[in-house]
Amino acid sequence: MPQYPGVTIAYKKNGECYYRAGITYRNKHISLGSFNSAKQGNQAYETALLVIRENKYNLIDYSENFGLDFEKWVILMNFRDNGIYIKNPIYLRTNYFLYYISRDTFFLFDTDDLFYYGHHKIMMRGGHLFVSDYGMQVNILSRYGIKNYAVAGKDYCFINGNEHDLRYSNIEVINHYHGVFYSKHKSLLCYTAKIHIEGEYLIGRYSSEKEAAIAYNKAADMLKRNGCKKNFPVNYISDMDEIEYAKLYHNLRISKNLRKFADNLNINGLNKEF
Known about the structure:
By secondary structure, this protein is α+β, with helices and mostly antiparallel strands. It contains 6 helices and 14 strands. The strands form 5 sheets. The protein has a 3-stranded antiparallel β-sheet, with helices on one face.
């Protein structure tokens, strides 16, 4: 068998062989991936040589015909151009960086997040971005205080209109709590709380966001006491002590229609998941 530079043979547990390609640059050994044949591995190695030792090609020049995975292409380009090896497909710019999900899909992040995303791989499923953190899938929008149930354009927005620009200055959180949104009622701006049970029910309108969030919790508690088994999210008010929370909880009023709905649940003995 001919010898191919940059390629070593390896074996799976069942004895089947495969080939690993790698290259050393600036005293750093970089894996280029695993391949079915030594020739494929060598092609990836030769491409990597052109990129990092001969300074050939730019980020946009990528082609699948090079035999090198696009993720490795980005890693090599960043190491060559910026002198920093990062194991994830990140390319550094001035004051921000690009994280590539694919050749045509990338996101912008502040450099403050570089350490985190340098060690946490982003996955995209169903249009949502996740990282694996302590064995759990974590939505990356949670880093901005955006809840999993939040709706773009309603609960948060991208100031410049680019939903791929995830720099902190570009994200505005509009609604911090579940079931709460800022609205106008009879020409006055207020915080409206609603809860969903076979359609949306108005809980009430309140002067502060925290009051509306607590009213949502109170409405959810009332429904559960009367037999509703729906698993309502809980709004956590982190900067309020128990006494202040309890006082507001007691004093906040719930709409008459919702109270009537809850009473009917209790009277009719319904034990239903909505």
